[in-house]
C-alpha cells in the first residue's frame, strides 16, 4: 500500500461511520488543538462520557481485555487511594485518574469504531501539517526559539511525531517526507524526540534494508546527524558542561546548566526525597510528580523528565515492576504479530513503541495524552482489523 493524497474523497467510507466513530475523530483533533490552552481535562471528560454511552448501549468487553484492564485499574486505584490518604487531596488526584482512564477509554472506543487505519492516518497527517505550519509561523513571526504549535511545549510535539515517522517510513516507505519529519523534530529542539527518531531509523534499516541499502544508509546517516546538529546547535553546545555533574551531585545543586545536567541532579534529589519519606516500596500516590500538584515534590521546581522515575515516585517499586512488565508485554506482542504476519504495520508500531520507551528516559511521555490517545487508537484499529480478517478466514 502506498500513501498518497487522494484526487477525490470516497464519501462511502466515511458514511459507514457511526456516532462513536465521528466522536473519536473529533475528540482526537480537539485534544491536540486545546493542549496549550489547558482544556485537555475537559476533552478527557467528554471522552469518558462517550465511553459510558458506549458501555450502556453496545459494549461487551472480551474476557482477556477485562483481565488486563482490571490489573491496570487496581494499580491506578491504589495510587489514587494512597495519594488521598497521604496528602488529603482526593479532588485533585482525580485528575490523574481521568487521564489514565481516558487512555483505556480511547482504546476501547477505537476498537469498536468503524474508523480504518487509512482514515486515522489521514487525520494524523492533517494534524502534523497544521501543527508544522503553526510552528513555522511562531518561529518566523512571533520570535519563538522553540515553537510548539498548539502543544504545551516543543518536546510534546517532537514525541507526537515518533509514531507518524515510523508509519511513514516503514508502512508507506515515503523516505523524503520522513526525512522532512526528522528535520522538523530537530527544528523543534527536543533532543529526546530526535534520539527516538534515530532509533526508529536504526530499527527500520536493521530489519528491512538489504546489504547495498545498508551501505547507502551508512553514507546517508551522517546527513541526518548533520541536519539535526545544524538545527540544534544551541542544544548541542549545552552538553559541554556534563563534566560538572559530579560536582553538582556532591552539592545537591540542580539549578542552572544544560538540560541533561539539571535532569540528572534532579533525579537524585527526587529519589533521595522518596527514600526519606519512606515511599520507595509503596510510592507517594498519583500526581505526586506533577508540577502543578498541591503536594508536588519538595526537592524540585521541575517535573522528573524521566517517566521511569515518575512511576517509581507515584507507584513505588511494586507499580514500577508492573510497569516494566507492561512495557515488555506490549513490545513482545507487537513484535510477535509483526513476525508471524510479516506485517509492516505491526512492525512500525513495535518500532514506535520502542522509541517512545527510549524517550521516556528524558521525557514526561507517560502523561502525554495527545500522543497516547492517537497511538492507542492506531493500535486498537490494527487489533480490530486483525480480528476481522481472522473471523472471515475462519468462516
Quick structural gist:
With 395 residues, the chain is mostly helical. Helix content is 73%, strand content 0%.
Provide structural commentary:
- The chain is mainly alpha-helical and 395 residues long.
- It has one domain (11-238, 306-394).
- Helix content is 73%, strand content 0%.
- It has 16 helices and no strands.
- The protein has helices spanning 11-15, 19-33, 40-57, 63-87, 90-111, 117-141, 154-170, 175-188, 191-208, 211-231, 233-238, 245-251, 259-276, 307-340, 344-359, 369-394.
- Helix 7 runs antiparallel to helix 15.
- The chain starts with 10 loop residues before the first helix and ends with a helix.
- The relative contact order is 0.12.
- The chain crosses the membrane at residues 16-33, 39-57, 64-86, 92-112, 121-144, 156-172, 179-206, 212-231, 311-329, 349-382.
- It is found in: Membrane.
- Residues 179-324 form the O-antigen ligase-related domain.
Features:
395 residues, mainly alpha, single chain, disordered N terminus, globular
Q: What structural class do the secondary elements suggest?
A: mainly alpha
Strand count, sense and barrel status of the largest sheet are:
none
Name the shape in a single word.
globular
Distance between termini? 26 Å
Domain count, please report it.
1
Number of helices: 16
Mean pLDDT: 85
Number of strands: 0
Work out the radius of gyration: 21 Å
What string, H for helix and E for strand, traces the elements in order?
HHHHHHHHHHHHHHHH
* Helicity range: over 70%
InterPro entries: O-antigen_ligase-rel_domated, WaaL-like
Domain O-antigen ligase-related: 179-324
Membrane topology: Multi-pass membrane protein
Keywords: Membrane, Transmembrane, Transmembrane helix
Amino acid at each position: 500500500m502506498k500513501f498518497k493524497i487522494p484526487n477525490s474523497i470516497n464519501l462511502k467510507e466515511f458514511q459507514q461511520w457511526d456516532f462513536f466513530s465521528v466522536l473519536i475523530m473529533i475528540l482526537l483533533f480537539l485534544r491536540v488543538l486545546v493542549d496549550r490552552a489547558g482544556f485537555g481535562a475537559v476533552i478527557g471528560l467528554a471522552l469518558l462520557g462517550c465511553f459510558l454511552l458506549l458501555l450502556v448501549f453496545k459494549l461487551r468487553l472480551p474476557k482477556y481485555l477485562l483481565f488486563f484492564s482490571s490489573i491496570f485499574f487496581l494499580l491506578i486505584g491504589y495510587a489514587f487511594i494512597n495519594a488521598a490518604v497521604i496528602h488529603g487531596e482526593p479532588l485533585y488526584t482525580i485528575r490523574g485518574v481521568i487521564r489514565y482512564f481516558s487512555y483505556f477509554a480511547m482504546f476501547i472506543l477505537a476498537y469498536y469504531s468503524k474508523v480504518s487505519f487509512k482514515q486515522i492516518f489521514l487525520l494524523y497527517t492533517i494534524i502534523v501539517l497544521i501543527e508544522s505550519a503553526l510552528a513555522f509561523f511562531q518561529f518566523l513571526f512571533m520570535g519563538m526559539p522553540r515553537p510548539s504549535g498548539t502543544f504545551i511545549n516543543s518536546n510534546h510535539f517532537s514525541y507526537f511525531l515518533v509514531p507518524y515517522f515510523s508509519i511513514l517510513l516503514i508502512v508507506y516507505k515515503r523516505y523524503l517526507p520522513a526525512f522532512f519529519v526528522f528535520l522538523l523534530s530537530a527544528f523543534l529542539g527536543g533532543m529526546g524526540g530526535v534520539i527516538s527518531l534515530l532509533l526508529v531509523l536504526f530499527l527500520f534499516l536493521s530489519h528491512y534494508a538489504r546489504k547495498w541499502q545498508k551501505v547507502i544508509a551508512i553514507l546517508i546517516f551522517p546527513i541526518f546527524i548533520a541536519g539535526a546538529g545544524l538545527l540544534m546547535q544551541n542544544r548541542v553546545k549545552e552538553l559541554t558542561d556534563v563534566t560538572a555533574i559530579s560536582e553538582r551531585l556532591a552539592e545537591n545543586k540542580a539549578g542552572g546548566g544544560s538540560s541533561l545536567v539539571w535532569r540528572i541532579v534532579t533525579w537524585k534529589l527526587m529519589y533521595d526525597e522518596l527514600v526519606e519519606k519512606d515511599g520507595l516500596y509503596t510510592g507517594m500516590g498519583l500526581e505526586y510528580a506533577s508540577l502543578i500538584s498541591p503536594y508536588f515534590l519538595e526537592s524540585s521546581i521541575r517535573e522528573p523528565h524521566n517517566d521511569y522515575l515518575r512511576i517509581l515516585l507515584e507507584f513505588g517499586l511494586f507499580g514500577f515492576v508492573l510497569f516494566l512488565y507492561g512495557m515488555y508485554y506490549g513490545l513482545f506482542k507487537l513484535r510477535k504479530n509483526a513476525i508471524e504476519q510479516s506485517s509492516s504495520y505491526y512492525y512500525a508500531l513495535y518500532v514506535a513503541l520502542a522509541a517512545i520507551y527510549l524517550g521516556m528516559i528524558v521525557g514526561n511521555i507517560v502523561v502525554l495524552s495527545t500522543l497516547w490517545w492517537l497511538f492507542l487508537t492506531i493500535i486498537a484499529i490494527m487489533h480490530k482489523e486483525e480480528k476481522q480478517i481472522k473471523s472471515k478466514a475462519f468462516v
